[in-house]
Amino acid sequence: MANTATRVRIAPSPTGEPHVGTAYIALFNYLFAKKHGGEFILRIEDTDAARSTPEFEQKVLDALKWCGLSWSEGPDVGGPYGPYRQSERKDTYLPYVEKIVENGHGFRCFCTPERLGEMRAEQRAAGKPPKYDGRCLTLKAEEVTARMAAGEPSVVRMKIPTEGSCKFVDGVYGEVEIPWEAVDMQVLLKADGMPTYHMANVVDDHLMKITHVARGEEWLSSVPKHILLYQYLGLEPPVFMHLSLMRNADKSKLSKRKNPTSISYYDALGYLPEALMNFLGLFFIQIGEGEELLTMDQLIANFDPENLSKAGAIFDLQKLDWLNGRWLRESVSEEDFVSRVLAWAQENDRFREGMKLAQSRITKLSDLPDLTGFLLKGDLGLVADDFSRIKKVPLEEVLRILQIVQPDLEKIFEWNAESIEVELRAISERNDIKLRNLLAPMFIAVSGSSRSLPLFDSMAILGRSVVRQRLKQAETAVKVGVDAAQAKNGQ
């Protein structure tokens, strides 16, 4: 395949804060396209209508642009194969689904969510992997027609071979073989008429002339489904490349429950986008010690997709800090440094909004650093003693509050002062905790002090990803104190 024909894509779902893993996969595709003189395309996979929002889509665009990545085609710039949002391509997929059914490679399934739930529970109880048991596979055409005419909800599933295995060559893992018995009869078309990820993915990659699909290794097990769909439709599949997942130092999967994963978090803490891309790019190239500081152009020059590691990419925050420090000291001029500091402090109106809240709470301007400094800090360095002085809220209760609050705050759809206040009040009522007792540890966890700017406004200014990390750090600090106290009392 000629280099000029190379077309790759990044296809994030706008269902939450953009993950640093998205930047990792996007960077690989970007480097691949640049190395081969090809095109890098952005497609928004928003088939999950309940969770996808225009706000999250904009966050995706902003985050990737902050990373220094640009695309030749996408929802914001257009292109010859648009639209580039799957929600706007709904009518595109139906003929492909119908072709699969008409050719006997797919079937209508009328099983209810309740029935499927019971089926999976029984399979797990028997020690079997949960997958569709084929109940609707043998329905007569007349029955299918009658049930659909009666308005009974149904989905379309794909048929899977009952014997043998799927063999393919992956651009990273080489020859791979997956038995068909391990592959589920995937839903292709949902009851609401929207395609699933798998169906839309295959159709869009074909219509957008994608030549190489590079994504995380968690999708490796889905390749048989995709290859089968290409075969069912009589289409040529792209080259698949599955990249090792980014992991924590303990080899566990990188997740927001353990570490900060939002791109916005690293932006908010003052990491340079060049440093983050430099850090992620080192996973894809082979260089000698002392050559780690690389610009995007240097990453492209050193990029070798034929020599990729299958080992997990360890997200070493200390190495990122080290690289970021080198960028600040060695690659940013004094004038540019000052400009970046001022721009960083004013991002998302953080400085302006903080000053507006502080105006009525100070007697002189020199009071501002102590009152508002937390808006610009990273780790607040809190310890259990910072929380032990809260009146009428023992440390064990502080720990319980912090543990209760975190998952519920994640459910907030639009992150602003009003929605935060509503949710915290609701948490107070649901858990029968006095509001002032609930908010007291929150003040300290978020600002580092029991007296600060208004809590709800402060949380909105800091942003979801920073607040998430501060609450996590506060929980860790308090748990250390609780464990120490329990150990002491047990002696």
Largest sheet descriptor: 3 strands, antiparallel
Number of strands: 11
**Which word captures the global form?**
globular
Order of strands across the biggest sheet?
Answer: 3-4-7
Class per helix and strand makeup? mainly alpha
The amount of helix comes to: 40-55%
- Unreliable parts: none
Q: Please state the average pLDDT score.
A: 93
- Radius of gyration over all CA atoms, rounded: 26 Å
Domain Glutamyl/glutaminyl-tRNA synthetase class Ib catalytic: 7-322
EC number: 6.1.1.17
Motif ('HIGH' region): 12-22
Motif ('KMSKS' region): 253-257
Notes on the structure:
- It is built from 20 helices and 11 strands.
- It has helices at residues 20-35, 54-66, 90-102, 113-125, 141-149, 197-207, 223-233, 263-268, 273-281, 296-302, 317-330, 334-345, 350-358, 368-372, 385-388, 395-409, 417-430, 435-447, 455-462, 464-489; strands spanning 7-10, 39-42, 106-109, 155-158, 165-170, 174-179, 187-189, 212-216, 239-243, 246-247, 313-314.
- Helix 18 (435-447) crosses helix 20.
- 32% of the residues are buried.
- A motif ('KMSKS' region) lies at residues 253-257.
- Residues 337-474 form the Aminoacyl-tRNA synthetase class I anticodon-binding domain.
Question: How do you describe this structure in short?
Answer:
The protein has 491 residues and is mostly helical.
Key traits:
single chain; mainly alpha; 20 helices; 46% helix; globular; cytoplasm; ATP-binding; GluRS_core; EC 6.1.1.17; protein biosynthesis
Give the SSE map:
Blueprint lengths: L6 E4 L9 H16 L3 E4 L11 H13 L23 H13 L3 E4 L3 H13 L15 H9 L5 E4 L6 E6 L3 E6 L7 E3 L7 H11 L4 E5 L6 H11 L5 E5 L2 E2 L15 H6 L4 H9 L14 H7 L10 E2 L2 H14 L3 H12 L4 H9 L9 H5 L12 H4 L6 H15 L7 H14 L4 H13 L7 H8 L1 H26 L2
Parallel strand pairs: 1-2, 8-9, 10-11
Antiparallel strand pairs: 3-4, 4-7, 5-6
